[in-house]
Amino acid sequence: MGDTAERQELWGGETAKAVDNFPVSGEPIPTPVAHWLGRIKAAAARANADLGLLDTDVAERIATAGDRIAVGEFDDQFPIDVFQTGSGTSSNMNANEVIATLAGEGVHPNDHVNMGQSSNDVFPSAVHLAALDRAVNELLPELEQLAHALEAKAQEFDDVVKSGRTHLMDAVPVTLGQEFAGYAAQVRQGMARVSDALPRLGQIPLGGTATGTGLNTHAEFAAKVRALLHEATGEEVACVAILESVPPLSSTGK
């Protein structure tokens, strides 16, 4: 893997076509999304092996490759523009092809790496979990630091009196500390709104496959993948109840 040329060819034909088809911004998908694609593919392989649908050796090779993507070892192998087909099909296939190459002989991108999955449930799941990850581990801690700094300044400036401003004009006096306390309160309110959104952000559509019906996947697949993701990352991930919220297709064909 030390050969640069070899690293540039870890993806396959579907990825190469997508690079040519979407020369839009020159900006690839965010690396956190690629990392979560790796985590999901790894968990999916282990779940399918546990369900007896995938050979154990093949599953472990896929999972090991997914784990390596998850820690950022192959960020340069996700070249497709962020502005691509709406379902993320190209990036899902990109992940499948890279993982299949890394997993080695006998591993097929679709039949094995993508088993029980679709771009329509995998890619939005990766986007949701990447956003959840960054919100919990980066955004909220940084907002906490900002709020704390503003609150400290509010105390420091408590005795600094100035003209208040309203409608671009001087108004009644306020302290600079009161103004900074207002800034801090605004940040705290923003943090509360972000926190309120996290449970919904943690809902992922894994198991719905192409059209939300769960066709071509095991009934226990989604729950097993969620459990494995939680075990591996500690994230609280939930799954939209696809089979309850989407009525089954008519068996009559009408």
CATH superfamily of the largest domain: Fumarase/aspartase (Central domain)
**Mean pLDDT figure:** 90
CATH class categorisation of the largest domain: Mainly Alpha
Please compute the radius of gyration using only Cα atoms. 24 Å
Q: What is the overall number of helices?
A: 10
- Tally of discrete structural domains: 2
Number of strands: 4
Q: Specify the CATH architecture of the largest domain.
A: Up-down Bundle
For the biggest β-sheet, the strand order reads 1-2
Task: Describe the 3D structure.
With 254 residues, the protein is mainly alpha-helical. The protein has 2 domains: 4-117, Fumarase C, Chain B, domain 1; 125-245, Fumarase/aspartase (Central domain) (Fumarase C, Chain A, domain 2), CATH 1.20.200.10. The protein contains 10 helices and 4 strands; from the N terminus they run αααααααββαβαβα. The chain has helices spanning 4-7, 13-21, 31-50, 56-70, 89-103, 109-113, 119-156, 176-201, 221-233, 242-245; strands at residues 161-166, 169-175, 203-204, 238-239. A two-stranded antiparallel sheet has the order 1-2. α3 (31-50) packs antiparallel against α4 and α3 (31-50) crosses α7. The longest helix is centred in the middle third of the chain and has 38 residues, at 119-156. Residues 1-5 and 241-254 have low confidence and may be disordered.
